[in-house]
UniProtKB/TrEMBL annotation:
It comes from Ornatilinea apprima. It catalyses: adenylyl-molybdopterin + molybdate = Mo-molybdopterin + AMP + H(+). GO terms for biological process: Mo-molybdopterin cofactor biosynthetic process. This is Molybdopterin molybdenumtransferase. GO terms for cellular component: cytoplasm. SUPFAM superfamilies: MoeA C-terminal domain-like, MoeA N-terminal region -like, Molybdenum cofactor biosynthesis proteins. It comes from the Bacteria.
Length: 411
C-alpha cells in the first residue's frame, strides 16, 4: 500500500484510478423515452424512417421552379401566376409549372413540380393571382430534401449518449417511444466517526450532524448514480469493516467519508487494502482541500475514501466521483466541462506544489463576469453552499492575481 503523504498529483491520481477499472458492464432496462430523460443509452439507436419524409420549405414564401426565376432582380422582376397554397399538414393537390408559384409556409410540403422557394421578403403582390419575384433562386434553395436530416437505417445515437432534451425530441421525431438505458450504478455511501450523528438528531456537545452522506448522495444523483446510504460507522475497526464490506457487496462502488486523515484513527486505507486486489492505489493527493483522499479498486469495484470535512469531501468528490460514475455507466466523456470565464476580484494566495480549489461567487459589471473568492475553512459547508462555482489554482502557481481571467467551473 502506498505510504501516506507520498502525495500524487490530481491528474496522475485520476489516471491511475481509472486505468485499474475494468470495462464497464452496466445493467440495462427499457423505459419510455420521457422517463429516460437524463439517463444514458445502453444500446445504439437506428433511424426507422427518413427525416424529413417529404420535401419541405425552410421559409415562408413561394414554391417555384428555379428556372422560372432566372434573371429576376429588384429592377427587373419576374411576374408569376399563383396557382394555389400548400396547406400545413396536407399534401398539395396541384402542380407548379413553368412561370407559376404557390404560397408556402415554413415546414410546408412542396407541390409537385416545384424545386425551390423564394423567400417572402423578395416578392410582392402584383395583382390578384399574380406575384412579383425580385430575386432568382437555385434548385434546392430554401428546401430540405427527404432524408437530409436522417436516412432510414442510419445510426442515430450511440450507446453511452445521454438523453438530453434534444435527443428526446429526436427520438420522438422517429416515433421511438421506448429506449434501452443504463440502470444507475449503485454507489454505497458510508460516513464514519464517533462524533457524527443523524441529521435529525440534536447533537450533544462535541457531536456534529452527518452532512457528507447527504451532500454526496446529491452529487451521485447529479452524475447519474443511485446513492445507497449505509449509515454512520463508529471508529471501531470491526464496525467500519463490516459496514464497508456490506456496502461493497451490495453496490457497484463505495464512497467512505472520514477515517482518511494521517492519524492513529485512520482505518479507511487499511480496510480498503483488505477488500480486494489491487487495493489502495493512491493515498494522499497534492490538492487542497482534500489532501488525505484515498483511491482504491477492490476486485474490480472502485472505492473512494474522502476527508470528513464537508467542503473537502464535496470538492474532491466532484473531481473523482463524476468520472467514476461515467465509467460505470459507459457514458461518453467527450462533452467538455462547463465553465465560465471571469475576472478575479481579489488576490488569491496559494501554496505552490498543491493544486488548490477555491469556491467563488459570481457577479457582473459593465465589463463582464467577476469571480469573488470565498475564503473558508474546510469544515464550513455553507461556504460552498453560497458559491456559484470553483476556480483552480495550478500546482506550480503561488496564487492568482486580482484582475486575472479565470475559469469558473460550475458546481
Amino acid at each position: 500500500m502506498p505510504e501516506f503523504l507520498k502525495l500524487t498529483a490530481p491528474d496522475e491520481a485520476l489516471k491511475r484510478f481509472m486505468s485499474h477499472l475494468p470495462a464497464a458492464q452496466p445493467r440495462r432496462e427499457t423505459l419510455p423515452v420521457l422517463e429516460a430523460a437524463g439517463r444514458v443509452l445502453a444500446s445504439d439507436v437506428y433511424a426507422l424512417e427518413a427525416l424529413p419524409s417529404f420535401r419541405r420549405s425552410t421559409v415562408d414564401g413561394f414554391a417555384v421552379q428555379a428556372s422560372s426565376t432566372f434573371g429576376a432582380s429588384d429592377s427587373l422582376p419576374i411576374y408569376m401566376n399563383v396557382v394555389g397554397e400548400s396547406q400545413m399538414g396536407a399534401e398539395p393537390n396541384f402542380k407548379v409549372g413553368k412561370g407559376q408559384a404557390a404560397v408556402i409556409h415554413t415546414g410546408g410540403m412542396l407541390p409537385e413540380g416545384a424545386n425551390a422557394v423564394v423567400m417572402m421578403e423578395y416578392t410582392q403582390e402584383a395583382r390578384a393571382g399574380e406575384v412579383e419575384v425580385q430575386r432568382a433562386v437555385s434548385v434546392g434553395e430554401n428546401v430540405i430534401e427527404p432524408g437530409e436530416d436522417v436516412k432510414p437505417g442510419e445510426l442515430l445515437l450511440e450507446a453511452g449518449k445521454e438523453l438530453s432534451p434534444a435527443v428526446v425530441g429526436g427520438l420522438m421525431s422517429q416515433g421511438i417511444a421506448e429506449v434501452e438505458v443504463v440502470k444507475p450504478p449503485r454507489i454505497g455511501i458510508l460516513s464514519s466517526g464517533d462524533e457524527v450523528v443523524d441529521p435529525l438528531q440534536v447533537p450533544l456537545p462535541g457531536q456534529v450532524r452527518d452532512v457528507n452522506s447527504y451532500s454526496l448522495s446529491a452529487l451521485v444523483q447529479r452524475f447519474g448514480g443511485e446513492p445507497v446510504r449505509f449509515g454512520i460507522s463508529s471508529d471501531r475497526e470491526e464496525d467500519m469493516r463490516a459496514r464497508a464490506r456490506s456496502a461493497m457487496d451490495a453496490c457497484d462502488a463505495l464512497v467512505i467519508t472520514a477515517g482518511s486523515s494521517a492519524s492513529v484513527r485512520d482505518l479507511t486505507a487499511r480496510i480498503l487494502a483488505e477488500m480486494g486486489e489491487p487495493g489502495v492505489l493512491v493515498h494522499g493527493i497534492r490538492i487542497r482541500p482534500g489532501k488525505p483522499t484515498i483511491l482504491a479498486v477492490c476486485d474490480g469495484k472502485p472505492a473512494i475514501g474522502l476527508p470528513g470535512n464537508p467542503v473537502s469531501a464535496l470538492v474532491v468528490g466532484s473531481l473523482f466521483i463524476k468520472p467514476m460514475i461515467y465509467h460505470l455507466t459507459g457514458r461518453k466523456t467527450t462533452v467538455p466541462v462547463a465553465y465560465l470565464q471571469a475576472r478575479l476580484s481579489t488576490n488569491t494566495p496559494s501554496q505552490a506544489g498543491k493544486e488548490e480549489w477555491f469556491p467563488v461567487s459570481l457577479r457582473q459589471d459593465e465589463r463582464g463576469w467577476i469571480a469573488e473568492p470565498i475564503f473558508y475553512k474546510s469544515n464550513l459547508i455553507f461556504a460552498l453552499a453560497k458559491a456559484d462555482g470553483l476556480i483552480r489554482v495550478p500546482l506550480d502557481a503561488n496564487g492568482l492575481e486580482a484582475g486575472q481571467v479565470v475559469e469558473v467551473y460550475f458546481l
